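Record passed on underneath.
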Amino acid sequence: MKLLINIDVPDVRDAEAFYTGAFRLTPARRFGDDGVELLGFEAPLYLLRKDAGSIGAGEAARDYARHWTPVHCDVVVDDLDAALARALAAGATQDSPIRQANWGRIVTIADPFGHGWCLLQFLGRGYDEIATP
C-alpha cells in the first residue's frame, strides 16, 4: 500500500508558497489551478483547491478558520527551533509552547488554512524511550 496526503485549501498558489517555505517541499506535478503535488515528505502531499463553503463530507461545509480534527500529521525535524522559525516565517501560527517529553520536543502549529500540524524533534532513542515490548 502507499499513503498519499491530500489537503483541501482555498488557494493552491498561496498554499504552495506556505508548504514549500515552511517544510521545504518541492513542487512536482501540477493539475491546472486545482492542485499541485509536493514532494519531500515520505508520502507525497497534494494541495487541492476546494472553495470555502463547499461540501467536504456528509453535509459539512469546508471552513478554513482554525479547526480541530482527530487526524493530523507530525513532521519530524532535526532542529525544532529552526523548523518552527521557518514555519512561522511562512505564515503558520503557533498553537502551543514547545514542550519536552522523555522522547523529545514538540510544538503544535496551524497552517494559514486552519489545518493543524505538530513539529517533533526526537531526542535520545525517540519513541523507544517510552515504548514497551
About this structure: The helical segments are 12-23, 80-90. The chain has two helices and eleven strands. The mean pLDDT is 96. The longest helix spans residues 12-23.
